[in-house]
Known about the structure:
single chain; alpha/beta; Rossmann fold; Dihydrodipicolinate Reductase, domain 2; six-stranded parallel beta sheet; binds NADPH dihydro-nicotinamide-adenine-dinucleotide phosphate; binds oxaloacetate ion
Amino acid sequence: MIKIGLLGCGNVGHIIATHAESIRVAAVFDILPGRAEELAALCHARPYTDFDAFMREDFSIVVEAASVDAVRIYGEAVLRSGRDIIVLSGGALADDEFREHLVEVAREAGKKIRIPSGAIIGLDNLKIGQVSPPSRLLLRTTKPPASLGMTAEARTEIFKGLAHDCIKQYPKNINVAVALGLAAGRDADVELWVDPAAERNIHEIFVEGDFGDIYVRVRNVPSPDNPATSYMAALSILTLLKNLENPLVVGT
Length: 252
Ligand SMILES: NC(=O)C1=CN([C@@H]2O[C@H](COP(=O)(O)OP(=O)(O)OC[C@H]3O[C@@H](n4cnc5c(N)ncnc54)[C@H](OP(=O)(O)O)[C@@H]3O)[C@@H](O)[C@H]2O)C=CC1
Ligand SMILES: O=C([O-])CC(=O)C(=O)O
């Protein structure tokens, strides 16, 4: 059974810990002691607020479900310790210099940085963009005001531009756009909308290229404990973990 270290004891951390059937959560880490202890008790793991002590525990992979900052702070140390890392806050990799450095560290250590599909569908075959670059790659995200931590009277576009700029302004809401770009091999265009009539976190993906065109719409149920995060993101990590050691690999 794969043993994981969970970095981040918030909403996704809870879903992973309470649905961990094919994996064992050996240790959990968070800035706040109360959060780490509460989650550890739920899944019979050891709680840590000291990162070095957390890293001395016995696990082979770290699951990051914390923040863009956490990836920047701890990513390198995880890889250098000889563990793979699953990065949900993939927005951290929008910074070219940081991403290239982290990838180089992973290469030297013989370890992997895995970015799950998270709150969207289809990162697997969007990788065709690395072979045949898309002429259009747009993510239109619409969230209810609560998911964006704001109020709004009417549907309003609050950002239009490139993913690597959007993630700086909305690091808790648009990691998917950076993941999309990393898969397809070019920075995605992003429109971010707040809509008081929306009840779900909606991601619409538009792609055009030599192959034809794609339109995908994902209407995600917000997580009960953090409406910014779609419930699907936690399921995506659980699924990635469940398949890690499966010899049959489905998807590009
Ligand atoms: N790629 C994708 O598709 C998606 C990515 N995400 C991202 O996944 C991450 C987790 O989401 P979610 O669980 O809902 O978020 P939560 O805010 O509910 O939980 C994150 C937890 O990690 C803690 N944390 C943050 N930074 C650090 C740090 N530097 N060191 C230790 N602990 C830290 C937080 O503490 P505190 O509250 O004190 O900051 C909090 O307890 C977020 O970054 C989110 O944006 C979410 C959905 C989809
Ligand atoms: O969960 C979502 O809908 C997307 C999200 O928050 C992110 O990508 O950071």
